[in-house]
Amino acid sequence: MSDFPDFSEIHAELRSVAADLLAKDTVDWPLLVSAGWIGLDAAEEAGGAGATFAEVAVICEELGRAAATTSYLGGAVLAIGALNAVPPNESRDVLLQAVVTGDVRATLALPGGAEPAPFDLATTRLGWRVHGRATFVPDAAGAQRLLLPARDADGTAVLVDVAADAPGVTVTEQPVLDETRRLATVTVEGVELGEAAVWQFDGDSESALRGLTDRAALAVACDSLGVAQAMLDATVSYTGVRQQFGRAIGSFQAVKHACADMLVRISVARQLVEAAIGAPGPHAVAMAKAYATEAAVEVAGKAMQLHGGIGYTWESGVHVYLKRAALNRSLFGSPAEHRAQLGRRYQQR
């Protein structure tokens, strides 16, 4: 018998618990903290579970399946990922523990597209000064600490820790069609910092920065996978009971083919996402993000169509998933941008 745990069983149990928890009417931040989700892949010394992104991915998928309105993407996935990318030091360790225990809400001011380090760090007589602007930042509104990916005078990527209420910091919510997510613009104008607030990345700074953008894109791909699966399940259930001409519409050949097409799209997306989780890298993530987010929009649109007239009403809830899928498609790189990245890889060969 193998000494290694069966991770598929662990993931199935985690998925079941997550589904039950997300079925509640209100899923607030304290509930996510008490469930242990915030520090899933934080080190045990910091109070985390010491798990991996594979377990975080399970939660991301279930959040998408439930179309849950939480701050998990920015406050946990991105914030913990950024803190894990920095070597242990006193100020970083204190913040990591506070985030895991829920005492402090933090987020990574990673823009939803374009330059991943939009902040500039300049030296002064007293230390450092940071300025810059990031748009479409998940869950920045309501965060107490902001982690800014910045570049110093030499162009080296670093991580900067600032208080969200510091003079010179402005967080402005950006209205988007998807009401289940909160995005914001973070503007920083000449905020003075001490050396303890500027952290070097562990290892190569560019690789670490790319790892954070990949983590964000893959988390969104997992969310889209959950959105698509929820829409297929809802459609199969609805077409099995909706009667037309004395029989369930799910028995019609055209409806069967449409549901089969949805299943195929989801199956391919799942394989790409699981491959990217198992062997993370920019190209694997690009394939997963491009395909899964595009598939979710297609599946949600097909679900609305197969629900008939009721699919276009507020009561059906299909519109919530379609809007979430549409935002996921563009957040942290559109399918076209990720395919262009893949194209450049093959052109270099």
TrEMBL record:
InterPro entries in UniProt: AcylCo_DH/oxidase_C, AcylCoA_DH/ox_N
Domain spans labelled Acyl-CoA dehydrogenase/oxidase N-terminal: 13-102
Domain Acyl-CoA dehydrogenase/oxidase C-terminal: from-to ranges: 215-345
Keyword vocabulary terms for this entry: FAD, Flavoprotein, Oxidoreductase
The name this protein goes by in its record: Acyl-CoA dehydrogenase
UniProt source species: [Mycobacterium] fortunisiensis
